[in-house]
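To the structural biology subgroup,

Please find below the input and predicted structure for Syntaxin-1A-like isoform X2, which we are adding to the shared reference set this quarter. The sequence is reproduced verbatim from the submission form. If anyone notices a discrepancy with their own records, reply to this email rather than editing the shared folder directly, so we keep one authoritative version.
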Amino acid sequence: MDSNITKQAMNEIETRHTEIIKLENSIRELHDMFVDMAMLVESQGELVNNIEKNVMSSVDYVERAKEETKKAVSLKGKSRRKMLFIGICLAVTLAILLISLAATLS
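Predicted structure (tokenized):
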């Protein structure tokens, strides 16, 4: 009877030991998962920071583009006026040349 109790106690101890080993393995796996999650969060944080930096840069580019567009519209109007002025000057010069040429030929 003593040997039965001893065997039963031994079986319980072995079962507990096996369960403790399984628990240790589960805790190790859980620890590894948390380490992996921490690494992912860190790498995602870098990506988020990079995205944030790019968004801030794009805001600056948009502001500069607005200013440049206004400047381009202004220069376009000035360019038209200058081209019109040059055309009038050429027409007047051509008219003067034609009149002087006609006067010298007649």
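Summary notes: The radius of gyration is 45 Å. The chain has a mean pLDDT of 92.

Regards,
Lab coordination
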